[in-house]
Amino acid sequence: MLELDILKFKQSDLLYTACYCEENIYMLCSEILKKRPELIDDFSVLFISNPHRSVPLWQQRAGRGDEHVVIWDYHVVLYYKQDSEALIYDFDTFLPFPSPADFYALETFKPNMVIKDEYKHMFRLIPAKAYLDHFESDRSHMLNENGEYTATPPQYPAIIKKGKSNLDNYISMKQDDTQDVHGTVMKSDDFYQSLFHEA
After folding, report:
1. What are the sequence ranges of the domains in the chain?
2. Protein N-terminal glutamine amidohydrolase alpha beta roll domain spans which residues (predicted)?
């Protein structure tokens, strides 16, 4: 199958740091660009959040209860789409890595469940290559009031190219005029319609 051809390495061989999903996905994109550059245009980075920065995700390793649900301020996964095949790569799920995108969405976002507006998911899709070119984070969002990290940071240096963190531009679910840099924002219904209609 195609997904086996894309990732011949094991998930356990990839760089991963708990609570730094945006960097884990950045490093995965870097690995794909290095090993299979001809495939990079088929990948998009998917930020999941909403204006309240409060989105429930199920089947997460950090979750609780039988369905392992957790409420994140945001989460980041990698989305692969080519023709009729669509996959999601999520380092923090109990689901397979990768998972078919429609299966992942049903299990992780529960699109058929009625939830309050403040918890409704929104999605920002950024071309993987653009994410590699423009994403920057100084990790300041992980510092508490005493300047201490709330979660141990990755061992490699912070991803800074121009000296200014722009993580908030990706977490924000307001569409700006820089689609080529920050991608496209979609409400949940629009994202699910495109996903399940094409699946």
Report:
1. 1-8+17-197
2. 16-193
Rounded-to-integer distance, Cα 141 and Cα 145, Å = 11
Residue 120 in contact with residue 188, Cβ under 8 Å?
Answer: yes
pTM over 0.90: yes
| Cα separation values, 50 from 55, 140, 142, 170, 195, Å | 7, 21, 19, 11, 19
131: Cα separation from own chain's centroid? 11
Per residue in 147-188, pLDDT (tens digit) is: 999 999 999 999 998 878 999 999 999 988 777 789 999 999
CA angle 191, 194, 199 (to 5 degrees): 120
Positions marked active-site: 21, 75, 90
Which residues are CB-contacts of 115 (< 8 A; sequence separation ≥ 6)?
56
